[in-house]
Design brief:
With about 100 residues, the protein is of the alpha+beta class. It has a single domain, classed as YaeB-like fold (2-Layer Sandwich). It is built from two helices and seven strands; from the N terminus they run βββαββββα. The strands form two sheets. A five-stranded mixed beta sheet has the order 1-7-6-5-4, with helices on both faces. A hairpin with a 4-residue loop joins strand 2 and strand 3.
Length: about 100
C-alpha cells in the first residue's frame, strides 16, 4: 500500500503532526496492517478506525484509492471511547 501525507504549508510539516506530533508514521502503518473498519464521510473521504500493535486506537481521515492501492492521509488523531466502541461493535458483530 502506498501512503501519502497531506502537508500543511503554514506550519511546514505533515498536517496531522501539527496537532498530534505524538503519533508516528509507523503507528499509522500498523493500523492498516491490523483489523480496521472504514466509515465513509463522503464519496471521497473515509474515516478508518483501528489500532496499533500496542492497542493504541487511532482515527485516520484519508482518501483511499482502491484501484491503485494508495492512501492519502489527511489527518490522524487518537480515538475517543466512542470510536473504540464502534470498532468493537463492527469487528465483533458476527461473533
Amino acid at each position: 500500500m502506498e501512503i501519502e501525507f497531506s502537508f500543511d504549508k503554514k506550519f511546514n510539516k505533515i498536517h496531522y503532526q501539527v496537532n498530534h506530533s505524538d503519533i508516528s508514521e509507523d503507528e499509522i502503518l500498523e493500523v492498516f496492517s491490523n483489523v480496521y473498519i472504514e466509515t465513509e464521510l463522503n464519496e471521497r473521504i473515509t474515516k478508518v478506525i483501528g489500532h496499533t500493535q500496542k492497542k493504541r486506537f487511532l482515527v485516520i481521515v484519508c482518501i483511499i484509492n482502491k484501484k491503485s492501492n494508495a492512501v492519502k492521509i489527511i489527518t490522524v488523531y487518537p480515538a475517543s471511547r466512542k470510536y473504540i466502541i464502534k470498532w468493537n461493535q463492527e469487528v465483533n458483530k458476527n461473533d
